[in-house]
Amino acid sequence: MHFSRPEKNEYAYKLDNYDSDWRYVGTKHTANYTNLDPGEYIFHVKAANSDGIWNEEGTSINIIINPPFWKTWWAYAIYFVLLISAIVSAGRYQNHRVIQKEKTKAILAENQRRAKELEEARTLQLSMLPKTVPSLPNLEIAVYMNPATEVGGDYYDFHVSNDGTLTVAVGDATGHGLNAGMMVTATKSLFESLAPDAEVLGFMNQSNRVLKNMNLRTLNMAMTMLKIKGSKIAICGAGMPPLLIHRAAENKMEEILLKGMPLGCVEEFPYKEQVLSISAGDTLLLMSDGFPERFNSHGDYMGYDEAYAAFEKVATKSPKEIIDYLVKTGDEWANGRPQDDDVTFVVMRVKT
């Protein structure tokens, strides 16, 4: 190189074991090589001053490019070990497949057995529900129940006494599945035994005592029970949503909140009875919490205000039409999400 007019200096370079001749690059003073094979190289550089006189001696550096790790001897040793491991693993996998296949057959057989038991339990539970709703001269009644699982925990029942008194029960057992079905069975037995004679308060107290003495641990039954005789209603609640009454004369909705612990929770709980009057055109709605607490695809639940508003919107229609609208409202709110809880409605309308 020369420091008189250095911008006129010219350069040439060559890489032994790669270039067959010198590369003259003029005043450019960089060199680029890509994808060189592993090996030893000598990089030569020479330069000429602005008068074109070359320094043929130039300078050089030795360059060693090591192979990538996957081409080293220890990499090939690893490949060999992996190959042996793969062969051994393949043998073990085949044995595992045989064992797993047998386990799958056993699990499938067990699932089929359980499915059959659940279906039998479902059939038994449905058989305990009334086959038809009571046909009374002063009331129009419609019911709906849709369990969230094969065996649900919701329950409803009717009894008509010789004097025309209608006893109605709507319940919601703890959880779902066979345990809930067992609680429904016990409650059905109590209803069949006590409903014809006991007043609502007496039914609640006796049922609570019996279920508590059965020592069912965390199993209990929320329930609303009412007796309708003429224009009078006697009602008692144990942990269920409020009774909703649409008063036809005032065209407004009345919420009857009945506080009480579910049956079987606390021995000797002081349940309270409330007596109301109903008039022609009034509509009563009993429901489980599966409707107002139904979740949508975003994890939000409907809420009691929305549930009440839905009922109030169609309260003057027939009980069947009311239920159809409530079911549609719940499905639209859920937006494709399956039910997380059982949904039950009992709608009664006083005939005009």
Task: Describe this protein's structure.
The structure is a single chain. By secondary structure, the protein is an alpha+beta fold. The protein is built from 5 helices and 14 strands. The chain has helices at residues 73-128, 177-194, 200-213, 304-314, 319-334; strands at residues 10-15, 23-26, 39-48, 59-65, 139-146, 154-160, 166-173, 221-229, 232-238, 243-247, 252-256, 273-277, 283-287, 343-350. The strands form 3 sheets. The chain has a 5-stranded antiparallel sheet with strand order 5-14-13-10-11, covered by helices on one side. Strand 10 and strand 11 form a beta hairpin. Helix 1 (73-128) runs parallel beside helix 2 and helix 4 packs antiparallel against helix 5 (319-334). It is elongated. The N and C termini lie far apart (116 Å).
Q: Looking across the biggest beta sheet, what order are the strands in?
A: 5-14-13-10-11
Using the alpha-carbon principal axes, give the shape: elongated
Radius of gyration: 42 Å
Helix/strand/pairing class, anyone? alpha+beta
The helical percent reads: 25-40%
* Sheet of most strands: 5 strands, antiparallel
Number of strands: 14
Q: What average pLDDT do the residues reach?
A: 88
Number of contiguous helices:
5
Poorly predicted runs are none
Strand content: 25-35%
C-alpha termini separation: 116 Å
Oligomer category = single chain
Order of helices and strands: EEEEHEEEHHEEEEEEHHE
Mind sketching the topology for me?
Layout: E1 10-15, E2 23-26, E3 39-48, E4 59-65, H1 73-128, E5 139-146, E6 154-160, E7 166-173, H2 177-194, H3 200-213, E8 221-229, E9 232-238, E10 243-247, E11 252-256, E12 273-277, E13 283-287, H4 304-314, H5 319-334, E14 343-350
Antiparallel strand pairs: 1-2, 1-3, 3-4, 5-14, 6-7, 7-8, 8-9, 9-12, 10-11, 10-13, 13-14
Helix pairs in contact: 1-2, 2-3, 4-5
